[in-house]
């Protein structure tokens, strides 16, 4: 494993995560509206900003973990297309994992509706495809 490349891939994946996340909320305002229907479950935007650094650290750590897993599973490298394709396929697996362990799990444990659960599932599934595709494009052994 190339630790410098893992670090660069993690940084690229983190940028992709936030760019996609901001674009998703901008392109899909009904998802933000759906979150606001549950003020007793989710923090206000103002309150979120106070704890946002903890969330950002958690996201960065999760992306580093995925980059390390990617490096262990796809050690051969390859060209840019191979990196992109392996990133997309591994991203789909990570996305499915996140949907099951986060979105569906939250539906069971939190008092939220099916519509918000579907919004989260779709958004997070594709977000992780984008993140791991970025990792796949950047990481080379």
Q: List low-confidence stretches.
A: none
Beta-strand residue fraction: under 5%
Q: Structural class given helices, strands, pairing? A: mainly alpha
Q: First CA to last CA: what distance?
A: 6 Å
- Give the rounded overall mean pLDDT: 93
User: What is the makeup of the main sheet?
Assistant: none
CA-based gyration radius: 16 Å
Taken from the alpha-carbon principal axes, the silhouette is elongated
Count all strands and give the number.
0
The proportion of residues forming helix, as a percent range, comes to over 70%
Give me the strand/helix succession.
HHHHH
Figure out the total of helices. Answer: 5
Your description of this structure?
- With 141 residues, the chain is mainly alpha-helical.
- Helix content is 83%, strand content 0%.
- The chain is built from 5 helices and no strands.
- The longest helix has 30 residues, at 80-109.
- It is elongated and about 45 Å long.
Keywords:
single chain; mainly alpha; 141 residues
How would you concisely characterize the structure shown here?
This protein has 141 residues and is mainly alpha-helical. The chain has helices at residues 3-27, 29-36, 45-73, 80-109, 114-138.
Topology of this structure?
Layout: H1 3-27, H2 29-36, H3 45-73, H4 80-109, H5 114-138
């Amino acid at each position: 494993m190339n630790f410098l490349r893992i670090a660069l891939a993690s940084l690229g994946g983190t940028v992709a995560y936030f760019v996609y996340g901001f674009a998703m909320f901008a392109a899909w305002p009904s998802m933000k509206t759906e979150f606001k229907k549950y003020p007793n479950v989710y923090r206000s935007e103002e309150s979120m900003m106070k704890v946002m650094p903890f969330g950002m650290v958690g996201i960065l750590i999760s992306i580093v973990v995925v980059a390390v897993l990617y490096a262990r599973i796809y050690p051969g490298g390859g060209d840019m297309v191979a990196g992109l394709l392996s990133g997309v396929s591994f991203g789909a697996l990570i996305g499915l994992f996140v949907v099951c362990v986060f979105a569906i799990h939250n539906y069971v444990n939190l008092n939220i509706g099916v519509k918000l659960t579907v919004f989260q599932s779709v958004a997070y599934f594709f977000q992780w495809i984008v993140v791991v595709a970025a990792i796949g494009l950047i990481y080379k052994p």
